[in-house]
Amino acid sequence: MMDRLRVAVVGAGAIGTFYGMMLEQAGADVSFVARGATLAAIRRDGLRITGKRTRTIHPLVTDDPAQIDVVDAVLVCTKTFQVAPALEDYSSSLIGPDTVVVTTQNGVATPQVVADIVGRRRTCPGVCREWVKIVEPGVVDDMGGPASIHIGMLDGSQNPIVDEIRSRFESVGVTCPPVADIITELWFKAVNVCAQGAIGAALEATLGELLTCHRDLFVRCVREWIAVGEAHGADFSPDVLAAVFAYFESQEGHLTTSFQRDITAGRASELEAQVGALPGLGDEVGVDTPLNDAFAAVLRAKAARAGH
User: Fold this and answer.
1) Structure confidence at residue 31 as a pLDDT band (50, 70, 90)
2) Dmax of the chain from CA atoms?
């Protein structure tokens, strides 16, 4: 284990708080970049997790990354549409020759966005699985789930910092196994969460309602995501559909995705990085996605009415 692992978490929302605090619990030197009400709340009260895990820390938090300096790893935990502006603003302060930049966003597009800014050899796609949500600025509810993160370098190389992050997570009960094919992992997560978010937001339905009242439609929605992923090279197992629904069935029925909560609340969302991206991805490989095309159109109309 490295004597010291320095980590900067950009974005202290639900994902950034959970995974940043777990690394801090594992002994890493973790700082947070935040703004506005979140920055003020953390400075005043600390950063808190409630629910399945309960913990408060008082980390270095700033809106000026120069106060943090170069780190071993940057966890980019903003919304997808904030990733490029954040890296363009912060990379000169946080990223050195050997820094690894870990993505955490849903969908499959973010790693290439990051690679275009910092280079493929620094880019480490991450796939997060835990049900977390913001209660208020600086407070995150851990609702349970697998508590896992899969990480792997975009260029397929082995990296000692990635190995160290993996070891630290495992030491505090966050599953972080070696990954042979991170792109397939990204697509598998998209098949799960992006499909659920799309149909859940369009129908304003919880996971339990999707599995009971709308199951046939849900299956067809997921099949479209699988078909596009396979056409783009995702190496899914033959029983991928069964695996996806086995995962859904193992989760609590009241759950919704952060994307659909944003849509329902009229907030800016990751629409164009999730279901909004699938029609174009399908067109690239000649796969039709009629259900998700319709969901994307419905959700764009909802977003437009909310001013987005």
Assistant:
1) very high
2) 53
